[in-house]
Design brief:
single chain; 2 domains; 21 helices; 79% helix
Length: 589
């Protein structure tokens, strides 16, 4: 007996030792891979930094770049760096703006309509208004144009992320909100224990969509043409613009191939690991049928990177926790006495009304002195044409992508197959193909007034698809299993669970898709290849032409009318639907 027991314990010890040895080897291998990756990232940034802050030469800021295909790897790195710097600022803006709008009733009444306006302002509007400011802030340096480009990419990313985060804050499960109050969490603790985990899945999908939107407007962000000036930055977007102008189809093909490689690498190294990691934030009491996997995430988990980051960030987190505890315990909203609330609302509303009235009077005076008030009716007519395109585009994309997105989001097997393909397609800048599409329109005699809808859809349909996938991915497994237990038919399952569950996500996707379509009209209603230019009748082409010529009065009028259309549609249509989604179709009670 003793001998058998000794042999058993010896085999167990040997097995444990073998497992520990294997784990140590995997850990060492993973540490080496992670260190190599970090050093490669630092080295790439170090290579690019000297050129980013390079002094302007004697001939001023360049208006052209080389179209040598050998420069494409470097151009791609510059574009990726701009994209993720803008994404970092977009995340910071999303958190601050979304929290302020969700936690304060008065601020929310101003910030959300303001967000409607911001998402409706086209990139060219931001560029024409801010390019001089960036050049003044960084005189004699290319950094001024770099800052303008990053800011332009930021304006194509931040708004849909903020809408998504704000909606997640308002739709937090009531029982988790009560638990946060009972546990007397500080605002810092609530943010990391409830707010961010609850918002993580839809926010992550909107980050992917934001990067895709940034790629779509990359050409306008790197080849900046405003106020009769053109500023060209080294990048893959400006490369395509330059190659298109010189009718270099071969170089455009190389740029498209480079872009595909970049998108696939970003998906493999970033989005696939993040979506697999975010699965732990799903609200469910049972495990998913099929877990998402990622080789990169596995290597990171086997390495000591998590331990190093935790040790570095823990003192900062503890310090912020101590600071925020002085603000009191957490709560979903701050409460005030009704009398004080009414007086405060009246004063707040009065100040806002006066400010709006002053702004409207100043705008009317500027238009009267610039273009004349009769121009307003002309621009309103152009805005109506673009509005009809946006409305039809939103309806068609919703009919196509809501059932597809819901099916993908609820089925981990389908998600593993189609998610990489969707991310590649959505991240690929569709306007890179605009020169080829222009040739197709010319060859087939397709009217650009109809063809522009196809061009707009290439960059905006993904907002609806991504949000619906994120909403369907967040449906608790318990509810899905319940529909099978009750033997619901396919239509009953869709009408009782799936469509109500993704309704709020569709609203968020619809708002951002419509806003993105308005923005995309700037680059879709006017397309060119070489000396051939096709121009559709609409508000987007009006703004593009006035911005390029430096007519600030017409640009201001066009941007204002576009913002007016977007805000009115959101107020009349989208926000009532969002309120319905929050009231009837959320997990809160």
């Amino acid at each position: 007996m003793a001998s058998a027991f000794t042999m058993t314990m010896s085999s167990v010890t040997t097995g444990n030792t073998a497992e520990e040895t294997t784990h140590t080897k995997h850990s060492l291998f993973s540490d080496v891979i992670v260190i190599i990756g970090i050093l490669a990232l630092i080295g790439a940034i170090a290579v690019m930094l000297p050129d980013i802050d390079k002094a302007v030469g004697p001939h001023g800021i360049p208006s052209t770049i080389s179209t040598d295909p050998g420069n494409l790897p470097y151009y791609a790195m510059r574009s990726v760096l701009r994209m993720f710097i803008a994404l970092a600022f977009s995340l910071l803006f999303t958190v601050i703006y979304g929290l302020a709008a969700a936690r304060s009733r008065r601020l929310g009444a101003i910030l959300i309509p303001l967000l409607d306006i911001l998402q409706s302002v086209p990139i060219l509007g931001f560029l024409s208004a801010t390019i001089s400011l960036w050049l003044v802030l960084f005189p004699g340096s290319i950094l001024g144009v770099e800052a303008a480009s990053i800011f332009a990419i930021f304006t194509s990313q931040a708004w849909n992320m903020t809408f998504s985060f704000h909606r997640s804050l308002l739709s937090e499960p009531a029982e988790l909100d009560e638990a946060a109050k009972i546990l007397r969490l500080s605002h810092w603790q609530r943010f990391w224990k409830l707010d961010m985990p609850n918002a993580m899945i839809p926010l992550l999908w909107n980050c992917m969509m934001s990067v895709g939107g940034g790629w779509f407007f990359l050409t306008a962000s790197e080849m900046i043409s405003v106020n009769n000036h053109t500023y060209a930055l080294p990048g893959i977007g400006s490369y395509v613009a330059e190659a298109s102008q010189h009718r270099q189809l071969g170089n455009i093909g190389w740029a498209i191939l480079t872009m595909i490689i970049v998108v696939v690498l970003i998906d493999f190294c970033l989005w696939k690991p993040l979506t697999a990691w975010a699965e732990k934030f799903r609200i469910t009491s049972s495990g998913s049928v099929m877990q998402r996997r990622s080789l990169v995430l596995t290597i990171i988990r086997q390495s000591h990177l998590n331990d190093v980051l935790a040790s570095l960030c823990r003192p900062v987190g503890d310090g912020l926790d101590m600071v925020t505890r002085s603000l009191g315990r957490t709560g979903s909203r701050w409460r005030v006495h009704s009398t004080r609330s009414r007086i405060g609302d009246l004063a707040f509303g009065t100040v806002i009304t006066i400010a709006i009235a002053i702004g409207i009077l100043a705008w009317i005076d500027s238009i009267r002195r610039g273009t004349g008030l009769d121009e307003i009716w002309h621009v309103l007519g152009l805005g109506l044409l673009t509005f009809l395109r946006v409305m039809l585009l939103t309806i068609v994309c919703s009919i196509i992508w809501v059932p597809i997105g819901a099916s993908i989001g609820m089925n981990p097997h389908l998600s593993r197959i189609f998610q990489p393909l969707i991310q590649v397609l959505s991240s690929f800048p569709a306007n890179f193909t605009f020169p080829l599409v222009t040739l197709w329109f010319i060859a087939w005699h397709i009217d650009i007034n109809w063809g522009t809808m196809l061009l707009m859809s290439l960059g905006t349909q993904w907002y609806i698809l991504f949000n619906v996938i994120a909403g369907a991915s967040s449906i608790p497994d318990d509810l899905q299993e319940m529909t099978h237990s009750f033997r619901l038919s396919g239509w009953q399952r869709w009408s009782k669970l799936i469509l109500p569950a993704v309704f709020g996500s569709w609203c968020t996707g619809g708002i951002t898709a419509a806003g993105g379509a308005w923005n995309a009209s700037i680059v879709s209603e006017t397309v060119a290849y070489g000396h051939t230019t096709l121009t559709a009748t609409g508000l987007g082409s009006y703004i593009a032409a006035s911005t390029a010529s430096g007519n600030m009065s017409k640009t201001l009028l066009g941007v204002t009318i576009m913002a007016l259309f977007v805000v009115i549609v959101n107020r009349i249509f989208w926000h009532p639907l969002e309120n319905l989604a929050e009231r009837r179709f959320s997990l809160t009670s």
